[in-house]
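Try it yourself: sequence plus zinc ion, in.
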Amino acid sequence: MLDRALPARDASDEEIARVHTPRYLELVKREIGGLDGPRYLSTGDVVVDASSLAVARRAAGGAIVAIEAAVETGEATFALVRPPGHHAESRRGMGFCLFNNAAIAARAYQARHGGRVLVVDFDYHHGNGTQDVAGEGLSYVSTHASPAYPGTGSELATLGRDAIVNVPLPASGIATEGFVAVWERLLRDVVAYVRPDAIVASAGFDYVAGDPVGDLGVDVGAATALARAINEAAFDACGGRVAYVLEGGYDIDALTASVEQIVRASDARASAERAADEAAIPRVVRERLARVDDLFA
Ligand SMILES: [Zn+2]
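Structure, out:
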Protein backbone atom coordinates (compact mmCIF):
# COMPACT_ATOMS: atom_id res chain seq x y z
CA MET A 1 0.00 0.00 0.00
CA LEU A 2 2.90 2.33 0.73
CA ASP A 3 3.89 2.21 -2.96
CA ARG A 4 1.27 4.86 -3.54
CA ALA A 5 2.23 7.10 -0.61
CA LEU A 6 2.49 10.82 -1.28
CA PRO A 7 5.05 12.96 0.55
CA ALA A 8 3.64 15.34 3.15
CA ARG A 9 4.74 18.95 3.29
CA ASP A 10 4.86 21.62 5.97
CA ALA A 11 1.78 23.76 6.55
CA SER A 12 2.59 27.46 6.34
CA ASP A 13 1.83 30.02 9.03
CA GLU A 14 -0.91 31.34 6.75
CA GLU A 15 -2.54 27.90 6.44
CA ILE A 16 -2.37 27.33 10.20
CA ALA A 17 -3.73 30.84 10.86
CA ARG A 18 -6.97 30.00 9.04
CA VAL A 19 -7.79 27.93 12.14
CA HIS A 20 -5.60 29.23 14.97
CA THR A 21 -5.08 32.76 16.23
CA PRO A 22 -1.72 34.46 15.50
CA ARG A 23 -1.28 34.80 19.25
CA TYR A 24 -1.56 31.02 19.77
CA LEU A 25 0.83 30.29 16.91
CA GLU A 26 3.35 32.69 18.48
CA LEU A 27 2.86 30.98 21.85
CA VAL A 28 3.65 27.58 20.33
CA LYS A 29 6.76 28.94 18.63
CA ARG A 30 7.93 30.69 21.78
CA GLU A 31 7.39 27.74 24.13
CA ILE A 32 8.89 25.13 21.83
CA GLY A 33 11.79 27.17 20.46
CA GLY A 34 15.06 26.19 22.08
CA LEU A 35 13.65 23.51 24.38
CA ASP A 36 16.30 21.10 25.62
CA GLY A 37 13.87 18.57 27.03
CA PRO A 38 10.17 17.75 27.26
CA ARG A 39 7.66 20.08 28.90
CA TYR A 40 3.93 20.69 28.91
CA LEU A 41 2.50 23.31 26.60
CA SER A 42 1.10 26.03 28.86
CA THR A 43 -2.41 25.85 27.32
CA GLY A 44 -3.11 22.18 27.94
CA ASP A 45 -2.06 18.59 28.32
CA VAL A 46 0.33 18.34 25.37
CA VAL A 47 3.89 17.18 26.00
CA VAL A 48 6.24 18.97 23.61
CA ASP A 49 9.94 19.04 22.90
CA ALA A 50 12.18 20.90 20.48
CA SER A 51 10.92 18.89 17.49
CA SER A 52 7.20 19.37 18.15
CA LEU A 53 6.57 22.48 16.06
CA ALA A 54 8.19 20.93 12.98
CA VAL A 55 6.29 17.66 13.45
CA ALA A 56 2.95 19.41 13.96
CA ARG A 57 3.54 21.59 10.90
CA ARG A 58 4.23 18.49 8.81
CA ALA A 59 1.13 16.76 10.16
CA ALA A 60 -1.11 19.69 9.23
CA GLY A 61 0.53 19.92 5.81
CA GLY A 62 0.02 16.18 5.33
CA ALA A 63 -3.70 16.61 5.91
CA ILE A 64 -3.75 19.36 3.28
CA VAL A 65 -1.90 17.11 0.80
CA ALA A 66 -4.49 14.40 1.48
CA ILE A 67 -7.53 16.55 0.75
CA GLU A 68 -5.91 17.98 -2.38
CA ALA A 69 -5.11 14.46 -3.62
CA ALA A 70 -8.71 13.42 -2.96
CA VAL A 71 -9.91 16.39 -5.00
CA GLU A 72 -7.60 15.52 -7.89
CA THR A 73 -8.39 11.81 -8.02
CA GLY A 74 -11.93 11.59 -6.66
CA GLU A 75 -10.66 8.81 -4.42
CA ALA A 76 -10.34 8.56 -0.67
CA THR A 77 -6.95 9.36 0.82
CA PHE A 78 -5.50 8.76 4.28
CA ALA A 79 -3.20 11.21 6.07
CA LEU A 80 -1.10 9.02 8.36
CA VAL A 81 -0.04 11.81 10.69
CA ARG A 82 0.70 12.52 14.33
CA PRO A 83 0.23 14.43 16.54
CA PRO A 84 -3.56 14.25 16.37
CA GLY A 85 -5.48 17.50 16.01
CA HIS A 86 -9.16 17.48 16.92
CA HIS A 87 -8.75 18.76 20.51
CA ALA A 88 -6.80 21.85 19.37
CA GLU A 89 -9.04 24.92 19.58
CA SER A 90 -8.39 28.21 17.81
CA ARG A 91 -6.43 29.60 20.75
CA ARG A 92 -5.21 26.59 22.69
CA GLY A 93 -3.66 23.18 22.24
CA MET A 94 -4.74 20.32 24.50
CA GLY A 95 -5.26 16.55 24.53
CA PHE A 96 -1.99 15.74 22.71
CA CYS A 97 -3.02 18.15 19.90
CA LEU A 98 -1.05 21.25 18.79
CA PHE A 99 -2.74 22.18 15.50
CA ASN A 100 -6.14 21.02 14.27
CA ASN A 101 -5.07 19.04 11.22
CA ALA A 102 -8.58 18.19 9.99
CA ALA A 103 -9.83 21.77 10.28
CA ILE A 104 -6.68 23.12 8.62
CA ALA A 105 -7.26 20.72 5.71
CA ALA A 106 -10.91 21.76 5.49
CA ARG A 107 -10.01 25.47 5.43
CA ALA A 108 -7.30 24.82 2.82
CA TYR A 109 -9.92 23.16 0.63
CA GLN A 110 -12.26 26.12 1.05
CA ALA A 111 -9.52 28.66 0.38
CA ARG A 112 -8.75 26.99 -2.93
CA HIS A 113 -12.14 25.77 -4.08
CA GLY A 114 -14.75 27.54 -1.97
CA GLY A 115 -17.76 25.51 -0.91
CA ARG A 116 -18.62 23.54 2.18
CA VAL A 117 -16.74 20.87 4.09
CA LEU A 118 -18.11 18.32 6.53
CA VAL A 119 -15.78 16.94 9.20
CA VAL A 120 -16.85 13.45 10.30
CA ASP A 121 -15.29 12.48 13.65
CA PHE A 122 -15.56 8.88 14.87
CA ASP A 123 -12.73 9.08 17.43
CA TYR A 124 -13.61 7.87 20.96
CA HIS A 125 -13.31 11.47 22.18
CA HIS A 126 -15.25 14.60 21.27
CA GLY A 127 -13.39 16.93 18.93
CA ASN A 128 -13.89 20.09 20.98
CA GLY A 129 -11.30 21.87 18.86
CA THR A 130 -13.05 21.19 15.57
CA GLN A 131 -16.39 22.18 17.04
CA ASP A 132 -14.74 25.38 18.30
CA VAL A 133 -13.75 26.44 14.78
CA ALA A 134 -16.88 25.16 12.94
CA GLY A 135 -19.03 27.58 10.97
CA GLU A 136 -18.37 29.58 7.80
CA GLY A 137 -18.90 26.52 5.64
CA LEU A 138 -17.36 23.99 8.01
CA SER A 139 -19.83 21.52 9.54
CA TYR A 140 -19.02 18.92 12.18
CA VAL A 141 -20.56 15.60 13.20
CA SER A 142 -19.20 13.46 16.03
CA THR A 143 -19.86 10.38 18.07
CA HIS A 144 -17.93 10.16 21.30
CA ALA A 145 -18.01 8.46 24.66
CA SER A 146 -19.78 10.35 27.44
CA PRO A 147 -18.81 10.96 30.13
CA ALA A 148 -15.21 11.08 28.93
CA TYR A 149 -12.39 13.50 28.17
CA PRO A 150 -12.70 16.42 27.36
CA GLY A 151 -16.25 16.66 28.74
CA THR A 152 -17.70 18.60 25.79
CA GLY A 153 -20.11 17.53 23.06
CA SER A 154 -23.21 16.82 25.11
CA GLU A 155 -25.40 19.30 23.24
CA LEU A 156 -26.83 19.09 19.78
CA ALA A 157 -26.57 22.41 17.99
CA THR A 158 -26.76 24.05 14.61
CA LEU A 159 -24.99 27.08 13.26
CA GLY A 160 -27.34 28.43 10.64
CA ARG A 161 -26.52 26.80 7.34
CA ASP A 162 -23.67 24.83 8.91
CA ALA A 163 -24.33 22.00 11.31
CA ILE A 164 -22.78 20.77 14.51
CA VAL A 165 -24.14 17.36 15.44
CA ASN A 166 -23.04 15.52 18.57
CA VAL A 167 -24.19 12.04 19.46
CA PRO A 168 -22.74 11.00 22.83
CA LEU A 169 -22.44 7.25 23.31
CA PRO A 170 -22.45 5.39 26.61
CA ALA A 171 -18.84 5.15 27.80
CA SER A 172 -19.65 1.70 29.12
CA GLY A 173 -19.65 0.52 25.55
CA ILE A 174 -21.72 -0.03 22.46
CA ALA A 175 -21.99 -3.13 20.30
CA THR A 176 -20.12 -3.02 17.01
CA GLU A 177 -23.30 -3.32 14.98
CA GLY A 178 -24.89 -0.47 16.89
CA PHE A 179 -21.85 1.77 16.38
CA VAL A 180 -21.88 1.14 12.65
CA ALA A 181 -25.65 1.63 12.46
CA VAL A 182 -25.36 5.00 14.22
CA TRP A 183 -22.84 6.15 11.64
CA GLU A 184 -24.79 4.87 8.65
CA ARG A 185 -27.80 6.83 9.80
CA LEU A 186 -25.86 9.95 10.80
CA LEU A 187 -24.04 10.11 7.48
CA ARG A 188 -27.29 9.76 5.56
CA ASP A 189 -29.01 12.52 7.54
CA VAL A 190 -26.15 14.97 8.00
CA VAL A 191 -24.84 14.73 4.44
CA ALA A 192 -28.35 15.34 3.10
CA TYR A 193 -28.59 18.45 5.27
CA VAL A 194 -25.10 19.89 4.77
CA ARG A 195 -24.54 18.88 1.11
CA PRO A 196 -20.77 19.06 1.49
CA ASP A 197 -18.36 19.62 -1.38
CA ALA A 198 -15.70 17.60 0.45
CA ILE A 199 -15.48 15.42 3.55
CA VAL A 200 -12.64 15.23 6.05
CA ALA A 201 -12.83 12.27 8.43
CA SER A 202 -11.21 12.67 11.84
CA ALA A 203 -10.18 9.02 11.98
CA GLY A 204 -9.44 8.05 15.55
CA PHE A 205 -9.33 4.37 16.45
CA ASP A 206 -9.34 4.62 20.24
CA TYR A 207 -12.96 3.38 20.10
CA VAL A 208 -11.62 -0.16 19.53
CA ALA A 209 -12.05 -2.61 22.42
CA GLY A 210 -8.88 -2.85 24.47
CA ASP A 211 -7.53 0.59 23.59
CA PRO A 212 -5.54 1.79 26.63
CA VAL A 213 -6.92 5.37 26.42
CA GLY A 214 -10.43 4.97 24.97
CA ASP A 215 -12.22 1.63 24.43
CA LEU A 216 -15.88 1.81 23.48
CA GLY A 217 -15.93 -1.97 23.20
CA VAL A 218 -16.25 -1.86 19.40
CA ASP A 219 -14.60 -4.63 17.40
CA VAL A 220 -11.47 -3.82 15.40
CA GLY A 221 -13.29 -4.92 12.23
CA ALA A 222 -15.68 -1.95 12.39
CA ALA A 223 -13.32 0.26 10.35
CA THR A 224 -14.27 -1.48 7.11
CA ALA A 225 -17.96 -0.73 7.62
CA LEU A 226 -17.21 2.85 8.69
CA ALA A 227 -15.10 3.43 5.59
CA ARG A 228 -17.78 1.96 3.34
CA ALA A 229 -20.43 4.25 4.81
CA ILE A 230 -18.22 7.35 4.63
CA ASN A 231 -16.93 6.62 1.12
CA GLU A 232 -20.45 5.94 -0.09
CA ALA A 233 -21.59 9.27 1.34
CA ALA A 234 -18.64 11.00 -0.34
CA PHE A 235 -19.41 9.41 -3.70
CA ASP A 236 -23.04 10.43 -3.47
CA ALA A 237 -22.47 13.96 -2.17
CA CYS A 238 -19.15 15.20 -3.46
CA GLY A 239 -17.52 13.11 -6.17
CA GLY A 240 -15.69 10.83 -3.74
CA ARG A 241 -13.66 13.67 -2.25
CA VAL A 242 -12.82 12.39 1.23
CA ALA A 243 -9.60 12.62 3.22
CA TYR A 244 -9.14 10.58 6.38
CA VAL A 245 -6.86 12.23 8.93
CA LEU A 246 -5.49 10.15 11.81
CA GLU A 247 -6.56 11.22 15.30
CA GLY A 248 -6.36 8.91 18.34
CA GLY A 249 -5.74 5.17 18.63
CA TYR A 250 -3.20 3.89 21.13
CA ASP A 251 -3.21 0.12 20.70
CA ILE A 252 -0.68 -0.18 17.90
CA ASP A 253 -2.00 -3.48 16.52
CA ALA A 254 -5.60 -2.23 16.46
CA LEU A 255 -4.47 1.06 14.93
CA THR A 256 -2.53 -0.74 12.19
CA ALA A 257 -5.40 -3.07 11.36
CA SER A 258 -7.92 -0.22 11.32
CA VAL A 259 -5.87 2.02 9.02
CA GLU A 260 -5.33 -0.93 6.67
CA GLN A 261 -9.07 -1.53 6.51
CA ILE A 262 -9.77 2.11 5.68
CA VAL A 263 -7.18 2.12 2.89
CA ARG A 264 -8.36 -1.20 1.43
CA ALA A 265 -11.99 -0.12 1.54
CA SER A 266 -10.96 2.92 -0.48
CA ASP A 267 -9.38 0.81 -3.19
CA ALA A 268 -12.71 -0.12 -4.69
CA ARG A 269 -16.13 1.30 -4.40
CA ALA A 270 -17.95 -0.59 -1.70
CA SER A 271 -20.13 -3.41 -2.89
CA ALA A 272 -23.64 -3.40 -1.53
CA GLU A 273 -23.23 -4.80 1.95
CA ARG A 274 -26.14 -5.34 4.25
CA ALA A 275 -26.82 -2.19 6.27
CA ALA A 276 -26.26 -2.51 9.99
CA ASP A 277 -29.39 -3.19 12.04
CA GLU A 278 -30.64 -0.08 13.82
CA ALA A 279 -32.19 -2.34 16.45
CA ALA A 280 -28.62 -2.81 17.69
CA ILE A 281 -28.43 0.86 18.69
CA PRO A 282 -28.98 1.32 22.44
CA ARG A 283 -32.30 2.96 23.23
CA VAL A 284 -30.74 6.09 24.77
CA VAL A 285 -28.70 6.63 21.62
CA ARG A 286 -31.73 6.05 19.38
CA GLU A 287 -33.51 8.81 21.28
CA ARG A 288 -30.60 11.16 20.58
CA LEU A 289 -30.71 10.28 16.90
CA ALA A 290 -34.43 11.04 16.88
CA ARG A 291 -33.59 14.48 18.29
CA VAL A 292 -31.10 14.95 15.46
CA ASP A 293 -33.89 14.18 13.01
CA ASP A 294 -36.08 16.79 14.71
CA LEU A 295 -33.26 19.29 14.40
CA PHE A 296 -33.04 18.78 10.66
CA ALA A 297 -36.80 18.56 10.06
ZN1 LIG B 1 -9.33 10.10 21.00
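One thing you can check immediately is this: Residues 52-73 form the longest helix (22 residues).
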